[in-house]
């Protein structure tokens, strides 16, 4: 009975509304970071080289799994609804089902994995390892889906090999960025 009264108390309702607003604001800011990083690109076909994985890793290293996943899901929904948030300001549901769709959907397990494991250790090596694991998941999903369009061998050659050199730098940059942002509590 007392918990029911407390839940109906105006201060409890206000705290929950504030908490929800803060959650939504963080998720939308995360989705904005992902959208901006999608536009920073080196053109390549069939999968463009963008800064999205770096942004996703930084988000995963900075916020809770709920906010991290909500950021990625918000980004996907924004693009699906027609906002020009995908690479080269593209949008729409068809974009989610082309050659890059697997990578876009792969962002969800990637960010969840990184965010869920991030607090077990603060060392650079540990965080590098969880980000590497996140990239393995991302490229596993992305290459698997891409193979439906171009075959497995071509998917590996076009959707993984060109990105291998970038992964180490992306992970390092994401960790350093997340550490710097957390240090200054930006």
Question: Your description of this structure?
Answer:
With 186 residues, the chain is mainly alpha-helical. The chain has a single domain (2-184), classed as Arp2/3 complex 21 kDa subunit ARPC3 (Orthogonal Bundle), CATH 1.10.1760.20. The chain is built from nine helices and two strands. It has a two-stranded antiparallel sheet. Mean pLDDT is 91; it is low at 9-14.
Q: Structural class, from secondary structure content?
A: mainly alpha
Strand proportion, as a percent range, falls in under 5%
- Quaternary class: single chain
Q: Determine the fraction of residues in helical runs and give it as a percent range.
A: over 70%
Count helical runs: 9
List the helices and strands in order.
HHEEHHHHHHH
What is the alpha-carbon Rg in Å? 18 Å
Query: What's the main sheet like?
Result: 2 strands, antiparallel
- For the terminal residues, how far apart are their CA atoms? 41 Å
| CATH topology (fold) name | Arp2/3 complex 21 kDa subunit ARPC3
Average pLDDT, rounded to a whole number, is 91
Tell me what the CATH architecture is.
Orthogonal Bundle
Task: Describe the structure in brief.
The protein has helices at about 1-10, 10-40, 50-60, 65-80, 95, 100-115, 125-150, 150-160, 165-185, and strands at about 40, 50. The chain has about 190 residues and is an all-alpha fold. The chain has a single domain (about 1-185), classed as Arp2/3 complex 21 kDa subunit ARPC3 (Orthogonal Bundle), CATH 1.10.1760.
């Amino acid at each position: 009975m007392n918990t029911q009264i407390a839940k109906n108390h105006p201060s409890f309702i206000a705290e929950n509304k504030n908490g929800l607003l803060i959650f939504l604001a963080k998720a939308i800011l995360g989705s904005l970071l992902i959208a901006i990083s999608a536009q920073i690109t080196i053109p390549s076909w069939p999968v463009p080289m963008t800064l999205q994985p770096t942004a996703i890793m930084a988000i995963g290293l900075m916020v809770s799994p709920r906010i991290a996943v909500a950021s990625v899901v918000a980004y996907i929904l924004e693009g699906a609804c027609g906002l020009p948030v995908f690479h080269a300001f593209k949008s729409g549901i068809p974009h989610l089902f082309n050659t890059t769709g697997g990578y876009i959907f792969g962002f969800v397990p990637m960010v969840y994995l990184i965010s869920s494991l991030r607090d077990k250790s603060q060392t650079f090596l540990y965080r590098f390892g969880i980000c590497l694991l996140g990239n393995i998941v991302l490229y596993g999903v992305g290459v698997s889906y891409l193979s439906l369009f171009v075959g497995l061998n071509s998917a590996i050659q076009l959707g993984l090999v060109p990105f291998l050199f970038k992964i180490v730098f992306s992970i390092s940059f994401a960790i350093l960025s997340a550490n710097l942002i957390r240090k200054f509590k930006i």
